[in-house]
Amino acid sequence: MKRNLKSYVLNLSAVLLIYIVISSLIGTGAINKYYTGILIMIGINVIMTVSLNLTTGFLGELALGHAGFMSVGAFTAGVITKALVEQYGWNATACLPVSLLAGGLLAAVMGFLIGVPALRLKGDYLAIITLGFGEIIRVIIQNLQITGGASGISRIPRVNSFTLTYVLMILVIIVMFTLGRSRHGRAIISIRENSVAAEATGVSVTRYKIFAFTFAAFFAGIAGGLYAHQIGRVSAATFDFNKSIEYLVMVVLGGMGSITGSIIAASVLTLLPELLREFSDYRMLLYSIILIVMMLFRPKGLMGTAEFSLTFVWNSLFGWVRKLLKIQPKVKDTPKAGLTDESVKAGHEPIMPDLPAYPLQEGEPVLETRNLGIRFGGLHAAEEVNLRLYDNEIVGLIGPNGAGKTTVFNMLTGVYLPTDGDILLLGKSIVGQKTYEIVANGIARTFQNIRLFKSMTVLENVKVAFHTRMHYSPATGIFRLPRYVREEEGIDLRARELLRVFSMEDAADTPADGLPYGQQRKLEICRALASNPKVLLLDEPAAGMNPIETKELMETINLIRDRFHITILLIEHDMKLVMGICERIYVLNYGRVIAEGKPAEIRNNPEVVRAYLGHSDQTNKAQAELEAIRNGNA
Amino acid sequence: MAMLEVKGLNVYYGAIHALHDVSFTVEQGEIVTLIGANGAGKTSTLHAISHLIPAKSGTITFKGENLNGMDAFKLVGKGMSQVPEGRRIFSAMTVLENLEMGAYSRRNKSEMLRDLDMVFGHFPRLKERVKQIAGTLSGGEQQMLATGRALMAHPTLLMMDEPSMGLSPILVEEIFAIIRDINREGTTILLVEQNAHMALSIANRAYVLETGSITMEGKAAELLNDDKVKSAYLGT
Amino acid sequence: MVLFLNQFINGLGIGAIYALIALGYTMVYGIVKLINFAHGDIMMVGAYTAVILMVDLSVSFPVALVVSMLVCVLIGVVIERVAYKPLRESPRICPLITAIGVSYLLENSAQLLFSANPRPFPTVLSIPPIVIGGVNISFITLLTVVVSVLLMIALQYFVMTSRTGKAMRAVSEDMGAARLMGINVNITISLTFAVGCALAAIGAMLYCIAYPSVAPTMGMMPGLKAFIAAVLGGIGLIPGAMIGGFIMGIAESLTKGFVSSQLSDAVVYGILIIVLLFKPSGLLGKAQREKV
């Protein structure tokens, strides 16, 4: 906590300092009206860029209609202020809170209305639809009486000020920042990194996409309102596709996923065109070249996903000065991720993530499938699959390539909807539930091709999985209320504990894609355990591992079963692993269970041997059928 | 001189060392098989030979010519063609068009027609379905199509990646009988297979791949009855 | 009724142009899964080339047409090699952004070279319209529809029966398997871009004959609409581009005639959104499943 307090003080001081410097310069006339206007535009553009970064940078979806939300905000705010002033005699400045808020809210509503249908699509299609909506907004505004038709609205009281813009800008930056550091921000980023894995770790992808969209639209609306009260007139043509692209360029240049990057890029790209007025003809040309060059040579943008940390700079600076003057640093207790006397005293003990009780009756299977099957077109990918998994078992699911093993996993986790049969978890049917609901109910999984959140750290990867066991709301996270602090501490403790079980606690701050392959697999398993599941599905965990890593994996799996008291179902091709740790094995071939039993029984089961190794004896029947087919008489 | 010589092949997928110093040869007229469990690196080997994926190190020599650095699409012209894993037929095109694609690198119309007849001779089912959209064929028919397509390139070396995958036992026997026929007609075959018994029953020589390294090699007939092969697949 | 028919026929005319441009989008998307935002601007390049040749260099129309096509093809192929090819393995957002950049590059270069003011396109044809029962069928519209339909049929025929066309279809489906067949994938992709650009050049000529004015941003709206047409019909499918183009043109024209010309854009986007919501892969498209 001490560390955070220092950080808060530093940042607040910096913000205040900048404000004081600039506003005094404005006050004394050192910065004239023209340049003040530019500074204000920088502020507005920062708000726009940072909000677009939420959708395009954090969520990872290309949105091409962001200027449309700005437009909605601008017109709403302009219309309301004018009405209040002209018809009700309000003081123009007093209108601002009402107008701006209304603008933001209406823009948010638009964001929601667009988000709900649009977010069912992905990637390119999503981008097109946002483009379409942006244009529709423009056309509608250009044709409504209330918004002044084609000529727009003019004579809006120009009551915006540097102070107001600066304050709002700082607020938006803070909100985006704190949102990003909360569990909701983590959820959004995890969707960008790997939406399938995000869903499988308990994040409702649809809900968060809509949330991000709406939130971003709200701030764009506020920016629009500021714009209206700055320029004094608005016309729909200002907020066209080109404008959306300008903000996209700022996000891309700054780095998709970096708030600092957005601030820098917005500032530079607002300032430069003004300073280079003579070259204004070349501005868009320069933009286009920037875009192309950036994508070809530095797609991460200036900052990538990194953020500027004043605290870090401060500490480094002091460290350097200390070295220079050869002063020994005070031996500080490294802040332990543990309960300290102070936090206990303050009544702020960490809130641990939920540990659901999984009530199980004696002899009842934990997970059961009854005649489970699925058809794709005419093909039965799985048929009459009856599995029973009991408490604390390790069960194997094996079979040749294409036998339907992953299909079964996908049905168990709600990725596929079975066409036949039922799945019962702790006695209750889960067919039809969404993946993230199934995670909350107690099934977690890993994937054949490792699906980690690559640019997040090891610790963050695990923390995402706690999402479904936490409760604090986005507002709590943004305003850093006590519940946020306590829950985050709780999962920090729990996450590190988990990493310790897997001997990975030293790698906590390494980005996930920097880990060696074996460790990445371990991390995926560790992450799956964070949601406190009752059943763990492992899909080919030993794939790509050498014999030593495989042996380690076997130990890890046994450890998990014992320590966490869960049931494990594992798909594997590595028979040493399967025969070594599974207590029971199901064998699938052509979508059906062809055998079930203990490892020794399975290994010597002639049908199993045939399914895997094939057979070279030709029975008479087979011979005859062959002959018939070859003569085209089948 | 061996028809195909692979020496010291190393392939990485990112940080994963998928193939370790893999070396083997294929002599003219042989059927050589590369067997191993799933994930052993069999498909990676064929992909590396066909230049679909890059190799970190190693040399691949075909008919005395070093293939390193050559564009993937030029290899067919050298006499090498592949029936890829999972068939990878062009499902939106007809059976005939798929076969035509197999002959893309060839110019001599009459020779192509002769090969078309040859393919239909091996796979009469395909002749019946000449105008059918390939995506609607059954698994076995798709395997036949993929094989026929590769044969249309008139290869000296035919590489086959897990032809038995997803096929019923009867069809597997049929396909393998046809592979034997193709070999008898003069085509050298490099066969990558998970189904060890079928592969060993038609091959001359075999290599066993385990987690990216070759652990056994020898005459197929000898390996057929070797318990070590069984343990490589099913564990001890 | 007369108004309806007049608008309908106008719609066919503009729809045919959208369809021609849409073909370029759809072929490129089919083969490299890229939305080439710059395609509409290629059309603009074609238009300017023709204007300069005809007005400043007194070249005849047929020659201007051919040169214009060559220029468009050249620019298209160069753009693909320089800006898109390096990003084939990158996440999809990257080439999308690059395409937007290229589009702006073309527009702003044109603006700098030729000024933002529109230039008139010289009259190439002056044949009076055919009048049937009060309905005006301008010769230009007739020509446009006929040329477009013929070109589309020719293209479909080419893609379906020629060796190169089949190679294009093979590469669209499975690049790796196509390589195994001996198909030079890079050349095939370049050819696809070339064909799309050539068609855009022809579309530009037809557009300029109907609306004789050339400006740096002229490609943006038709390009956007053509792209929407391609998506509407089912992106990657040539018949889809055809159907989508005509639907867009007719819808736009009827809205202009019966509702309001200002709202025609909104109606057009509205149609797109509705179709995508109910049939995300377009009218003729088939749904794709992601492998988990």
Can you offer a commentary on this structure?
The complex is a heterotrimer of chains A (634), B (236) and C (292). Chain A has 25 helices and ten strands. Chain A has 634 residues and is α/β, with parallel strands linked by helices. Chain A has two domains: 40-243, no CATH class; 367-613, Rossmann fold (3-Layer(aba) Sandwich). In chain A, the strands form two sheets. Chain A has a six-stranded mixed sheet with strand order 6-7-8-3-9-10, sandwiched between helices. In chain A, strand 1 and strand 2 (379-389) form a beta hairpin. Chain B is an alpha/beta fold. Helix content of chain B is 37%, strand content 26%. In chain B, strands 6-7-8-3-9-10 form a six-stranded mixed sheet, with helices on both faces. Chain B has a four-stranded antiparallel sheet with strand order 2-1-4-5, with helices on one face. In chain B, strand 4 and strand 5 (65-66) form a beta hairpin. In chain B, helix 3 (95-102) packs parallel to helix 6 (139-151). The N and C termini of chain B lie far apart (39 Å). Chain C has one domain. Helices cover 72% and strands 3% of the residues of chain C. Chain C has eleven helices and four strands, in the order ααααβββααααβααα. Chain C has helices at 2-32, 39-56, 61-84, 93-114, 139-161, 163-173, 175-180, 185-210, 220-233, 238-258, 264-278; strands at residues 119-120, 130-132, 135-137, 213-214. In chain C, the strands form two sheets. Chain C has a two-stranded antiparallel ribbon with strand order 1-4. Chain C has a two-stranded antiparallel sheet with strand order 2-3. In chain C, a hairpin with a 2-residue loop joins strand 2 and strand 3 (135-137). The radius of gyration of chain C is 19 Å and the shape is globular. The mean pLDDT of chain C is 88. Chains in contact: A-B, A-C, B-C. The B-C interface holds B 50, 52, 71-77, 81-82, 84, 88-93, 97, 100-102, 104-105, 149, 153 and C 163, 166-167, 169-170, 173-174, 176-185.
Feature tags:
heterotrimer, A: 634 residues, alpha/beta, Rossmann fold, 2 domains, six-stranded mixed beta sheet, four-stranded antiparallel beta sheet, 25 helices, 10 strands, elongated, C: 292 residues, mainly alpha, two-stranded antiparallel ribbon, two-stranded antiparallel sheet, 4 strands, globular
